């Protein structure tokens, strides 16, 4: 197979169950990027634990972020990355990992919120200003994220772009980055709790998924019903094993249709669960606030009973902050 840079790449051997597990190709750029991201996240967790020993960064978020990085490694370095240029259905598995699975897990990990918690001024102030800036606000708007997601899915699969991806390594790298970015921009406003301006309600989250589902379904059905191999670069490989080129495209369309819709259904279930859990969570927060107010009355003696004017609320907040500051200083004095 001749690439766009004039380098001839040998076709990999036939894909078997054994090779699906054992075939790995470690890309130095991917490995370094993943290790740097993992180290930065771990450093942020250490900073938060050091500054707030009583409130360490939740381990579940770290597990989700690590799983997201693992999904990236599997998509690019495992047999999925080895056979992406040879079998279209394998490319489609990679596509789903990069545009849906990995971004969803990374969003749950909340790396931007961790950065804010771990940083101090002036870095903290600068990061917060950037995240609340107009360009970031526009890019993370759901009405912008859905079209970007649609352009990434349709533009790379229903055009001749795949020919460029197979023959040009730079185009392939750009495609991988596009999938990750498009997936994050689509999922972050609805399913992340990052410090951006957009925070969708559960019904809006469900609507966001419903808007995007036809994109994957349409693309998958078109590929599943095509009667010819749409990309000459796959035909030029003269692969002598596996499915025929047309069957390969049909399998890829099925992966897109069934796989993407399955992930979308998981997102809908997650949104429904958060919707149903919201009332109970609200009752729990009210109980915590009542307990906090009672503790203030006992410890500080400032919060009055049965009053709700704004000045008194400010006084309660100031007294509470003073109490927290004194509590934080007590261990140091010992």
Can you give a write-up of this model?
The longest helix has 55 residues. By secondary structure, the protein is mainly alpha-helical. It is built from 15 helices and no strands. The protein has 2 domains: 272 residues, no CATH class; 38 residues, no CATH class.
For this entry, give a set of tags:
2 domains; globular; disordered N terminus; 334 residues; 75% helix; mainly alpha
* Average pLDDT taken over every residue: 84
Q: How many individual helices?
A: 15
Residue share in helix: over 70%
Number of strands: 0
Structural class: mainly alpha
- Contiguous low-pLDDT stretches (5 residues minimum) are 1-8, 302-313
Number of domains: 2
Task: Summarize the biggest pleated sheet.
Answer: none
> Strand share of the residues?
under 5%
Shape: globular
Oligomeric form of this entry? single chain
What is the end-to-end distance? 71 Å
Whole-angstrom Rg: 25 Å
SSE ordering: HHHHHHHHHHHHHHH
Describe the secondary structure blueprint for this structure:
Elements: H1 17-22, H2 28-51, H3 59-77, H4 79-82, H5 88-109, H6 111-118, H7 123-131, H8 134-139, H9 142-157, H10 161-167, H11 169-191, H12 202-225, H13 232-235, H14 245-299, H15 310-333
């Amino acid at each position: 197979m001749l690439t766009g840079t004039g380098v001839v790449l040998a076709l990999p051997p036939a894909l078997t169950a054994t090779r699906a597990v054992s075939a790995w190709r470690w890309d130095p750029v991917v490995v370094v990027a993943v290790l740097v991201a993992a180290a930065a996240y771990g450093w942020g967790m250490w900073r938060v634990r050091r500054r707030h020993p009583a409130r360490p960064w939740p381990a579940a978020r770290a597990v989700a972020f690590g799983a997201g990085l693992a999904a990236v490694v599997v998509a690019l370095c495992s047999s999925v990355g080895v056979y992406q240029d040879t079998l279209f259905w394998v490319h489609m598995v990679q596509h789903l990992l990069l545009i849906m699975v990995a971004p969803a897990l990374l969003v749950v990990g909340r790396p931007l919120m961790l950065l804010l918690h771990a940083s101090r001024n002036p870095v903290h102030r600068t990061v917060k200003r950037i995240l609340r800036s107009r360009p970031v606000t526009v890019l993370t708007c759901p009405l912008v994220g859905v079209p970007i997601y649609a352009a990434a899915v349709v533009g790379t699969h229903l055009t001749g772009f795949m020919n460029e991806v197979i023959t040009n390594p730079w185009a392939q790298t750009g495609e991988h980055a596009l999938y990750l970015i498009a997936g994050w921009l689509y999922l972050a406003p609805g399913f992340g709790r990052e410090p951006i301006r957009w925070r969708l309600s559960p019904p809006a989250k469900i609507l966001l998924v419903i808007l995007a589902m036809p994109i994957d379904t349409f693309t998958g059905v078109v590929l599943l019903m095509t009667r010819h191999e749409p990309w000459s670069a796959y035909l030029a490989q003269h692969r002598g094993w596996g499915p025929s080129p047309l069957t390969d495209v049909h399998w890829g369309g099925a992966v897109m249709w069934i796989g993407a819709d399955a992930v979308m259904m998981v997102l809908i279930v997650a949104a429904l669960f958060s919707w149903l859990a919201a009332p109970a969570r609200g009752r729990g927060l009210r109980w915590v606030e009542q307990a906090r107010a009672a503790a203030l009355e006992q410890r500080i003696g400032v919060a009055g009973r049965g009053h709700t004017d704004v000045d008194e609320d400010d006084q309660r907040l100031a007294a509470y902050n003073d109490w927290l500051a004194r509590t934080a200083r007590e261990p140091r004095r010992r």
